[in-house]
Amino acid sequence: MGKALVIAALAALLGIGTAQAAEVESRDFEVFRNGERIGHHRVEIAREGERSVVNVDINLRVTFGPLTLYRYVHQSREEWQGDRLVSLVSSTDNDGTEERLRAMADGDGLKVNGTRFTGMLPADTMPTSYWRGDFVRRDTIMDSQNGRVLDLQVRPESFEMASAARDEIPARRFHLTGDIDLTLWYDRDGRWVKSAFKATDGSQVEYRLR
Q: Which residues contact 14 (CB under 8 A, 6 or more apart)?
């Protein structure tokens, strides 16, 4: 076999070709509870043509001195083809309560197997990973922890300056009510830049983009 053919064979074997490398975008949020930092929420988005792979890592811990009062850990991996979710796998430890979700595109729908829902959902179902600006325009919203369908009402509000960790960003605010009560901010390009909500214990939680 000639040298050129050997190189081509190795390139094919290793997945190396003339196609452009995936474009990677990261969004790293610091999470604060009543003004005190309690952890992070990181999203990494790798795009290659119409395909996107999204990895989410959340790690939150509320402490009192050496004691841990509350801990939340979540990891998920999403695959998208254009505007359609084709795969989602997640695991969550919500202060000792374990939740799981596996969802796969299946024909004209999304086949879901989660700790709170198992069955078929519409193909345009949107998970609660929030990174997509069109989240606020989808009809069916699925909890990324467990697969349950959420009943939400979305109220768009005006553009304002949203506080990030070290800056202020022009962003439009959306307030969500129903099964969750949450405020989201997206910039003019549809990028998620901030969140805020009240926790079940009444404390204020805020996401600030690094």
A: none
CB 27 within 8 A of CB 191: yes
- β-pair partners for 109: 106, 122
pLDDT digits (tens, 9 = 90+) for 154-205: 999 888 888 765 678 889 999 999 999 999 999 999 999 999 999 988 999 9
Characterize 183-199 residue by residue with b for buried, 16 or more Cβ atoms within 10 angstroms of its Cβ, and e for exposed.
Answer: bbbbbeeebbbbbbeee
DSSP letter string over 166-203? SSEEEEEEEEEEES--EEEEEETTS-EEEEEEE-TTS-
Closest listed residue to residue 78, CA positions, set 9, 141, 131, 20: 131
* Residue matched to tokens 């960003």: 169
